[in-house]
């Protein structure tokens, strides 16, 4: 049995815990929040083992000998410090996206995991959904890729302004590029090898935080566009243009549907619903790596985590 502790049991952790309960051979045994009372309230709301421990101190959770691995769901700016502390405590780490704020942070944490022989994986769920291998195969059918446009935009700014959210505020870890742009960066990393050259970036800011980013780049000599927003609605799609046709993936951060249009051929519809939900694939994959004694994922390797942050770093240097 793989015993999980959730470090930072907030909103996203509720969905994670519900999915974890469906994974065979894994269980939630502990959670930590700012106070023990809040951690206990969280455990009362989600599936967990009888007697699951509630901690008001993250260090106390890391010291729990009955916790094998950590799901790190703290705000973005806390991932680096607490991933290192978890690894120092001998815990494997499944870290919510974006794993780190910069390539330097990602390089340090992944190196620490390798040095300690512990599994570290960024929870980039798009790579573990049933549609993913079909998308990869479809891209291969396009012939040489000429352009990739990855867009994840939501009209949510009015909602964010009325509640406490780390996306706004202007501090480290804030902004839509880290929160939504990381999904776009993951697709670009996966589909386009080679050097990253940023050509133009259009942005909008609210109280010091980026709320719209539209970055035009060349990656390995191929045209690439990364667009993300929390202040406007636009198609949430991955569009890959190749020599022979176009692939469109809907809801690129939670993909279940895509369409492949090859010149002279009928449109191919690719539908692959979740087995359980959008978290289930990444959790089952992570648990399989744990059982095998692996320290990184072949689907979301350390190099991918570092390169995704490198793409975001390159965009931010233009601001």
TrEMBL record:
- The UniProt record lists the GFO/IDH/MocA-like oxidoreductase domain at 140-247
- Keyword RNA-binding in record: no
**What does UniProt give as the signal peptide span?**
none
Q: Does the keyword Magnesium apply?
A: no
Record Gene3D superfamilies: Dihydrodipicolinate Reductase, domain 2, NAD(P)-binding Rossmann-like Domain
According to the UniProt entry, its GO molecular function terms are: nucleotide binding; oxidoreductase activity
| Keywords, in A-Z order | Oxidoreductase
Record-linked InterPro entries: Gfo/Idh/MocA-like_OxRdtase_N (IPR000683), Gfo/Idh/MocA_domain (IPR050984), GFO_IDH_MocA-like_dom (IPR055170), NAD(P)-bd_dom_sf (IPR036291)
**Span of domain Gfo/Idh/MocA-like oxidoreductase N-terminal:** 2-121
User: Which family is this protein grouped under?
Assistant: Belongs to the Gfo/Idh/MocA family.
Q: What is this protein called?
A: Uncharacterized protein
């Amino acid at each position: 049995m793989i015993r999980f502790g959730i470090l930072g049991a907030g909103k996203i952790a509720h969905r994670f815990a519900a999915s974890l309960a469906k994974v065979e051979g894994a269980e939630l045994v502990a959670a930590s929040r700012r106070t023990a009372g809040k951690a206990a309230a969280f455990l009362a709301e989600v599936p967990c083992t009888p007697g699951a421990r509630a901690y008001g101190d993250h260090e106390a959770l890391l010291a729990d000998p009955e916790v094998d691995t950590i799901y790190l769901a703290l705000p973005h700016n806390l991932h680096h410090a607490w991933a290192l502390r978890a690894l120092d405590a001998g815990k494997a780490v499944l870290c919510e996206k974006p794993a780190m704020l910069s390539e330097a942070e990602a390089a340090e944490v992944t190196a620490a995991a390798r040095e300690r022989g512990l599994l570290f994986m960024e929870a980039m769920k798009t790579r573990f959904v049933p549609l993913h291998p079909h998308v990869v195969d479809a891209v291969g059918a396009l012939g040489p890729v000429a352009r990739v446009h990855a867009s994840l935009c939501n009209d949510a700014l009015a909602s964010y302004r009325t509640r406490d959210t780390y996306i706004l505020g202007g501090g480290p870890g804030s902004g839509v590029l880290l929160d939504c742009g990381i999904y776009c960066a993951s697709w670009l990393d996966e589909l386009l090898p080679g050097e990253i050259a940023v050509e133009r970036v259009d942005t909008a800011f609210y109280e010091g935080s980026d709320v719209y980013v539209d970055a035009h780049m060349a990656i390995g000599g191929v045209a690439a566009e990364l667009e993300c927003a929390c202040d406007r609605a636009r198609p949430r799609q991955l569009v890959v243009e190749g020599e022979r046709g176009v692939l469109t993936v809907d809801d690129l951060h939670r993909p279940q549907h895509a369409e492949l249009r090859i010149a002279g051929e009928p449109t191919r519809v690719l539908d692959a619903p979740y087995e359980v939900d959008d978290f289930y694939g990444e959790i089952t994959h992570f648990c399989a790596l744990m059982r095998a004694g692996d320290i990184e994922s072949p689907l979301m390797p350390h190099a991918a985590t570092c390169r995704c942050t490198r793409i975001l770093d390159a965009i931010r240097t233009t601001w």
